[in-house]
Model the fold of this input.
Amino acid sequence: MLGALLAGIMTLGLGSVTATPARAATAATAACTGSVSLYGALADGRLTYSQINPSNGDRIKTLIGPDLGFTPKAMATLNFNTVLVTDTAGVLYRVDVQTNNLSLGLVGPPVQIGTGWTHDKLTYDGHGHLYGTAGGVLIQYLVSQDKPAGSQHIGQRKEIGNGFVLKTLSSSGDDRLIANTADGRLLEYRIDSGGGWSGAELVASGWSAFERLVSPGGGLYYGVTGAGGMYWYQDVNPADRSGTDIVYHNDDPVDVSGWTQTVLSAQPGTATCSGGNYAYVLPHAAVPRSELDDPHHDYAAIDIQVPTGTPVYAVTRGTVSYVDGGFGNGIQINGADGATYIYGHLSQRGVAAGATVTPGQYLGESGNTGQSTGPHLHFEIRIGGVKHCPQAMLRDLYDGLSPQAPSTLATSGCSY
Done:
């Protein structure tokens, strides 16, 4: 860690490992690539930039820049060189950043681009949507330029809902938000194309210590405690709407103290983590792991008994096609890995034929369509027309492990 550097440029406080969520720590490594970029502002208005290695949580550097000239209230990072910041009077500024390995500066003074921005929190999802909360109302905006100049570039204001009384707010992906609450819950929200939303409780307690919580994507979460310690976590399958697979690195924090920024924001979409090539196909809570051993009644495949309406997710990257007949509302993914994955008997499809999906992406919901005797998900893997047993792959993904190559999976022994 660069503790000496940080000590020289930031006010250090005393951190406490016990202030972080009470979950057993694991080895402080993660199969992640990219670089985590965090912008922030100190209480005196100076801009900060920090870079973190996503695979081990080590802070690579922290730079302190000039005074912004106002008291920051909320911040969202659009891209590496552009940050949106509001002040306590409700003015929205665009901050154009210029940085290298040794210095952090501004291209010019912050550009005022709007008034009436009384939001207490802001975050950008990296896919054109800026989110903020004001008085418990969650609001969505469309950002149409990398360097917006005013309302013509940040518009289409849409109120998503009220009751969003949150301690923090950050984006973890395309129209996905994470937040913690004063009573310690870790929450996720997903916003659909029509402005509707759904929420999920990832963790029921233990996250109240974090005053700031940010995510660069990839299932990585960085939390700053009131004592100034920063801790990092990896949600192995961020698409499953469950926190049971979050890996806690409490024994190796980014820093035990020193993070005194009053606002903090992550550049979105800058980290990719393992499980990045494959994802579990159901919510973790849908069935116990023991059911992933069940043999199929006819051939190499698996029938997983889940209620109608259970979300199903893409196991890997590939192109979608529809399969009907006995599969009812079936979906086939022609995987980038050369394998074909079939999801049978869905109650509804949630992706279009011809679409390209990524691991963990929502495909639709399980059901009882086609030749089916009860609600379940039929899942099978084919390579060159040969069916392979999917049970071992599903168990690995359930456990948060990288699965063996589909071509090495058995072709028999998983049916009766």
Q: What stands out?
A: The radius of gyration is 23 Å. Residues 1-19, 24-29 have pLDDT under 50 and may be disordered. The first helix runs from residue 3 to 9.
